[in-house]
Every structure is written in structure tokens, then in C-alpha cells.
Amino acid sequence: MGRTGATVAELEALYRRRYEPLVRVAAGIAGDVERGHDAVQSAFATAVRTRRSFRADGPLEAWLWRIVVNEASRARRAPQSLELDDVSVPAANANGVDDLGLRAFIAGLPERQRAAVFLRYYADLDYRSIAGLLGIEVGTVSATLNAAHTTLRRAFEEVER
Predict the structure, then answer these.
(1) How far is CA 94 from the centre of its chain?
(2) How is the chain split among helix, strand and coil, in percent rounded to 5?
(3) pLDDT for the residue numbered 155
(4) What three-state secondary structure class fits 1?
(5) What distance in Å separates the CA atoms of residue 80 and residue 40, rounded to the nearest whole number?
(6) 111-121 vs 60-77: helix axis angle to the nearest 10?
(7) Selection from 39, 101, 94 nearest residue 66 by Cα
(8) Cα–Cα distance between 95 and 41 in angstroms, integer?
(9) What b/e readout covers 26-61, taking b as 16+ CB neighbours within 10 angstroms?
């Protein structure tokens, strides 16, 4: 039988190594940078508190990503003003859409699409990892990203008109 649980030292090392990417994704899901930071902090507190529940049947980082995504989704639903200026999303000026416009378009996506976009393009996770984090099938990840691309493409086309 394999080991179960994670050590505080393992979680601390992961925190130090991956904090910024975790915050970028959490901010994108939650709607602003402050909520992103709060979600990551809360996720790490949860991870430390529940570290014995880690079954080591997958990478520790994947287990942590799931917690971060859940915390960021919870933060998104919490009442608070949305400040899109704080979300770190690269500009798409080549397509005629300014940085704030792209952020607004992404922020307007349905929650699952928004999470999938951030996990794929800002956390650089593969479809299998995204599926595990969102609790969906790999094919659903593909369909979700396709729907997000279609929505964003239409929004960009409207801006160009």
C-alpha cells in the first residue's frame, strides 16, 4: 500500500514554487487579483489542514490545483465588487481588442469555460489535468474550450465591426 498524506514541507515547497501561477489562475476564476490571492491562501490553509487526506494516487500539485479552483470558484460567488483592471490577462491588441476588453470578455464567460481557459492557457495544464480539477471528462474539457473560443471569437468580431 502506498503512502497517504502530504507533509507540511512538501506543501510549503509547492507554495513557494507555484504561488504566482496559482494566483493568476485563481484571479481569473474569482474575478480579481485580491480574490485570487485570498483563494490561494485559503486553499493552502485547507491543504495543510487536510493534508492527511491526500492519497498520493496522483501528483500533489494536481490535488492542490483542485483545492485552488474550488476556493476561487467559491470566491467568485461571494458578494464583492468585480475589478477587472486587476486580473492579469495578456492583451490581444493584434486582434483590435485592448487588454481590458479581453479581460471583460473572459470574465463574461460561464464559470466552467472561464476556469478551463485559465487552467489551459495561464496554468498550462493539459486536458486530463483540467478534467480532474473540474470533475468532468476529458472530452468535455475539449468541448468547453471550444465553446469558450467560439464565444471569444464572436466577441472579437463584434469589436472589429
Answers:
(1) 25
(2) 75, 0, 25
(3) 82
(4) coil
(5) 17
(6) 140
(7) 39
(8) 35
(9) bbbbbbbbebbbbbbebbbeebeeebeebeeeeebe
DSSP 91-137: -BGGGTB-HHHHHHHHHTS-HHHHHHHHHHHTS---HHHHHHHHTS-
Say which DSSP state 58 is in. S
Grid cell digits, residue 61: 500539485
pLDDT tens column, 15-46: 999 999 999 999 988 888 899 999 999 999 99
C-alpha cell, 154: 464572436
Beta-bridge mates of residue 97? 92
Cα atoms in the Cβ-side hemisphere of radius 13 Å centred on 35: 28
Domains annotated on the chain, with CATH: 1-81 (1.10.1740.10), 90-161 (1.10.10.10)
**pTM score over 0.70:** no
Q: Which amino acid is at 81?
A: S
pLDDT of the residue at 99: 52
Measure the CA–CA gap between 116 and 122, rounded to whole angstroms. Answer: 10
